[in-house]
Amino acid sequence: MTDPIADFLTRVRNAVKANHKVVEAPGSKMKQAITKILFEQGYILAYKFEADSKGHPIIKIALKYHPETKTNAIKGLKRVSRPGLRRYASAADMPRVLNGLGIAIVSTSKGIMTDKKARQENVGGEVLCYVY
């Protein structure tokens, strides 16, 4: 697999479109950090980091739906930086997703964080994805 982050985002995107309640994906430290950000920002209901029978890490994510309208909290996931074309942004040029309604997940020297936190800490980095 050449782009495991894109695979992770695609699994979540497909589960959202199919109205699944839970989605499983292979785990890594970067995917765990992305999952924690999605939870902190209110895009997912819960998550759990486990290991399968062979000891490989697995991430289980409970997707969040509105109780009455049954619409999902995640409207879109878009991979920005990819192996073929890396995208970097300085703290001043950090992208705003949907004029501040969405988030950009950024990999910085201080860890993986949202675009707003990167602006506060005045650090730039690789723009991994947009979530809205």
TrEMBL record:
Pfam families membership: Ribosomal_S8
Record keywords, A-Z: Ribonucleoprotein, Ribosomal protein, RNA-binding, rRNA-binding
Taxonomy of the source species: Bacteria, Pseudomonadati, Bacteroidota, Bacteroidia, Bacteroidales
Record function comment: One of the primary rRNA binding proteins, it binds directly to 16S rRNA central domain where it helps coordinate assembly of the platform of the 30S subunit.
Keyword Ribosomal protein assigned: yes
Family the entry assigns: Belongs to the universal ribosomal protein uS8 family.
Stated name of the protein: Small ribosomal subunit protein uS8
GO cellular component terms attached to this protein's record: ribosome
InterPro entries, alphabetized: Ribosomal_uS8, Ribosomal_uS8_CS, Ribosomal_uS8_sf
Superkingdom of this protein's organism: Bacteria
Subunit structure: Part of the 30S ribosomal subunit. Contacts proteins S5 and S12.
